[in-house]
Amino acid sequence: MVRYKLTLAYDGGNFFGSQRQANKRTVQGEFEKALMKLGWTGRSVLLSGRTDTGVHAAGQVASADLDWSHTDGDLVRALNSSLPNDMSVKDVQIVDEKFHPRFDAISRHYRYKLFCQPLRDPIRERFTWRVWPSINSDGLADAAGQFSGTHDFSAFGSPTTPKGTTMRNVMDAQWIQTAEDEWHFEVQANAFLYRMVRRMAFLQVAVAQGKIPVEVLARSLVKQEPAESRNGLISGLAPAHGLTLINVEYNNK
Question: What is the pTM of this model?
Answer without folding.
Answer: 0.96
